[in-house]
Design a protein that fits this description.
The complex is a heterodimer. Chain A is an alpha+beta fold. Chain A contains four helices and ten strands; from the N terminus they run βααβαβαβββββββ. Classes of the chains: A alpha+beta, B mainly alpha.
Chain lengths: 214, 84
């Protein structure tokens, strides 16, 4: 493993987005992982539609909440093609699902994995290098007040409640940390990102980790 | 509780926002006081969510559900080898 790795350095991670007053972090994280997976495959990096996932993903509740696993399962089972964000823009509220013709261009997935990497964060780092940015679910109660630095206290792994994307890690300092993209806009945290201590499952970051295959 | 009221009543009174802000300032002082000398540890302070009570913040922004994920084991590598 390298001491430091960040998929942003490869220009395969889209800009930080803002979920506004919509509880759709689960959709932002899954769509972000699909965007990066295609960019790693050599496709142009572009924003795909989060609103499509919020409106159309069954077994989820749109802006009232949802599960990354159910969203990945829906994408895989239905083989729905995610369209560009410009064609189905985010409006921070639930809406009726818009369907597109099969001939319409879009991005589907070939599969996904979902694992508990707790106590195996080095293996999780290898998975990150292998598959691209990972979808995670953390307990983000203390993130309400986060400004910067490495989260290593006040963040238990008790009750995961917020979906994010893990784009990299940095082990060069005395406290290794995961580089985590959030969906609360770029003014929050470190340019929209959080740094979470690596190695002892801080915030439960290794408990619910998914990778997308395209 | 407050979060349910928040969800239902929409716009919040100035007093409520002020009370939430005061609570946030106290919380920041507490969070930053515990490990002041630890280098590069997280810093907590005023941001776009400081006007919300924690329950209100959670009611809107922390809405991801979880289910049990299988423990990672070597099968992930075999899973990859089976991918087309």
């Amino acid at each position: 493993l390298p001491l430091r790795f960040d998929w942003r350095d490869k220009h395969v991670v889209t800009q930080v987005r803002n979920q506004q007053m919509c509880g759709g972090c689960w959709a932002f994280s899954v769509v972000g992982a699909v965007e990066s997976a295609y960019a790693i495959k050599g496709k142009p990096l572009e924003d795909l539609s989060v609103q499509q996932v919020i409106d159309c993903s069954y077994n989820n509740y749109g802006c009232n909440g949802g599960s990354t696993l159910n969203a990945l399962n829906w994408l895989n089972k239905t083989q729905v093609k995610l369209v560009r964000d410009s064609e189905y823009p985010f409006k921070a509220q639930n809406g009726l699902c818009l369907y597109f013709a099969d001939t319409h261009s879009g991005f589907s997935i070939k599969g996904y994995s979902a694992h508990d990497f707790s106590d195996q964060e080095d293996e999780m780092a290898k998975a990150l290098l292998t598959f691209g940015p990972l979808v995670g679910i953390v307990d983000a109660v203390s993130w309400q007040d986060y400004l910067g630095g490495i989260i290593q206290h006040h963040c238990s792994s008790g009750e995961a409640n917020h979906a994010i994307i893990i784009t990299g890690f940095d082990k060069t300092g005395s406290t290794p940390y995961w580089i985590v993209r959030n969906s609360w806009g770029s003014s929050w945290g470190v340019d929209g990102y959080a740094h979470v201590k690596m190695g002892d499952n801080t915030c439960g970051i290794a408990d619910f980790v998914s990778a997308v295959f395209v | 509780g407050r979060s349910a009221a928040f969800a239902r009543t929409g716009p919040r009174s100035r007093e409520q926002q002020a009370a939430a802000f005061r609570e946030s300032l106290n919380r920041h002082r507490y969070l930053n006081s515990l490990f002041p000398s630890e280098n590069s540890t997280a810093v907590y302070g005023i941001n776009q969510f400081s006007y919300l009570f924690p329950e209100e913040f959670k009611a809107v922004y922390l809405k991801s559900e979880t289910s049990r994920f299988p423990k990672y084991s070597a099968d992930l590598q075999t899973f990859i080898s089976k991918l087309p």
